[in-house]
Every structure is written in structure tokens, then in C-alpha cells.
Amino acid sequence: MKDESGLNDNGASVPKARDSEKDNGVKTAQDARNLTTVCYLEQNGCYLMIHRTKKEHDTNKDKLIGLGGHFHYGESPEECMLREMKEECGIVLTDMKLRGIITFVSDVFGCEYMFLFSATEYEGAIAADCNEGSLVWIKKEELLKCGNLWAGDRIFLKLLDERSEFFSLKLCYKGEELTDAILDGARLHYPEQPELGKNA
How far apart are the C-alpha atoms of 92 and 90, rounded to whole Å? Predict the structure, then answer.
């Protein structure tokens, strides 16, 4: 999850919503100004992850997350994803697929809409270093057991394995506690082990 700055990645100011759009305290999607991408690149049963350790002020500090980031103005989700992969690890994805959209709602970080991709093929060599943390390959089954993974990430990582069709997942947080998870409009059983099978 990302914090809001009011600036896009190249430092340009993002237009604010008109006052009329904020009547009665109702926020618009533009107020969130928080569109991101993430990709889970799979090779030999492992996902390429970033262990976020290098940024001083990082909402993902010490977490394991997929590669991705914020949109630049005018980018499509695919353009954003390709740029972020090139910037973060030096490769060009050749078979990425948009798998779902994740809506994050947090009492601390606000709202974020994240376009979720998966991929298995790429061109180039993965960089030895990343300015956001360490690049690590982790077995998929081991990743789900890691303590430094966002709780909601376990749900959509499982969905990536269990479902081929596009999905929409809403995750609600209080601090780092996942309080609600809604898949394609149906509430999942959480914080107990999500019964994804009945919704898949």
C-alpha cells in the first residue's frame, strides 16, 4: 500500500477534485489520486519480490511485496507496469496479463486502486540491486507463510493460483489489521482462513 502525496512520480501536481464533488463529505475517486500496479513474476515455482528495506519513510517498510508502483499521468495500467518493472529490476515483461483489480481502504493510508498483473516471461537480466530494497525469489508456498506479508496479499496471491478469470477484491485495513475482504461483491470469511473455494 502506498501513501498519498498529491504528486505523481515525476513530481507534477495532480489536479484536486472540485469543491462541488466533496458535498456532504462524500469523497470521489479523484480524491484518492492513488492508482498503482503490481506484478507477480513467476519462474520455477517462485515469485520475484522486493523486500522493502531502503526507503526511510515507506508504508511497506520491511514488507515483501510484488514489483510495481504509481501511475504517471496519462499512462495505461500496462504502460505503468512495463515502466515500473524496467525501473525496479531492469527487465521487460513479454507475457504479462491483467488478472484483477484490488481496492484498498485504510484508516491510515486512505484509498488505493491497484491493477494486479502476473507474468512468466521477460527479456533482459534482472538487476543485482534495487533502490527500494532487495530483490528475492521466494517459493510460492513459502511466501504465503512469511510474517512480513500484508494479510490481504495472501488472499490475492492464492487467487492468482486458484482462478483464471479476472477478479475484483476489496481489502479494508485498520492500521496493519485486515478487517474485511470482499471478492466480486461477496464477503470472505476473515480473519479466519478465507474460504476462497466457494467463491472461485
Answer: 7
